[in-house]
Amino acid sequence: MSIELLQTIVQFILFVVRIYSIGMIIYIFMSWIPGARESIVGQYMAKLFEPYLAIFRRFIPPLGGMLDLSPIVAFIVLNLFSRGIVAIYYFIVNQFY
C-alpha cells in the first residue's frame, strides 16, 4: 500500500468523523426547536445519531432529569478517535516508509 493511498484513507475517515460531528451538533440543537426532531429530517437524523448517543446515555444519566451531558462525552470520544487515527497513521509512516 502506498503512502498516498494510506493518506487518502486517513483523510477520508477524518472527513467522515468531522461531518458526523457537525450533523450531531445540528441534531442536538434541533432539540431546542419544538417539533424539529419529529419532522422527517429529525427522524432521519435520529436514526443516524441516537444509536451512538445511546451508548453514552446508558452510563451518563441526565443531571436533574433535564441536562444531558452525554453528547459532550460523545464528542470527546469522537475527537479521541480522530486523534488515534492520526497517531496510527504517523506510526505506520514512521515505521514502514
Short characterization:
The chain has helices spanning 3-30, 40-57, 70-96. The chain is mostly helical. It holds the Pfam family CCB3_YggT.
Account of the 3D structure:
- InterPro entries: CCB3/YggT (IPR003425).
- It comes from Staphylococcus muscae.
- Keywords: Membrane, Transmembrane, Transmembrane helix.
- The chain crosses the membrane at residues 12-33, 72-92.
- This is Membrane protein.
- This protein is mainly α.
- It has one domain (3-96).
- 75% of the residues lie in helices and 0% in strands.
- It has helices at residues 3-30, 40-57, 70-96.
- α1 packs antiparallel against α3 (70-96) and α2 (40-57) packs across α3 (70-96).
- The radius of gyration is 17 Å and the shape is elongated.
- It starts with a helix and ends with a helix.
- The mean pLDDT is 93.
Tag the structure with descriptive keywords:
single chain, 97 residues, mainly alpha, 3 helices, CCB3/YggT, transmembrane helix
Architecture blueprint of SSEs:
Elements: H1 3-30, H2 40-57, H3 70-96
Helix pairs in contact: 1-2, 1-3, 2-3
Count of alpha and pi helical runs? 3
Distance between the termini: 11 Å
Rounded radius of gyration (Å): 17 Å
Shape from CA axes?
elongated
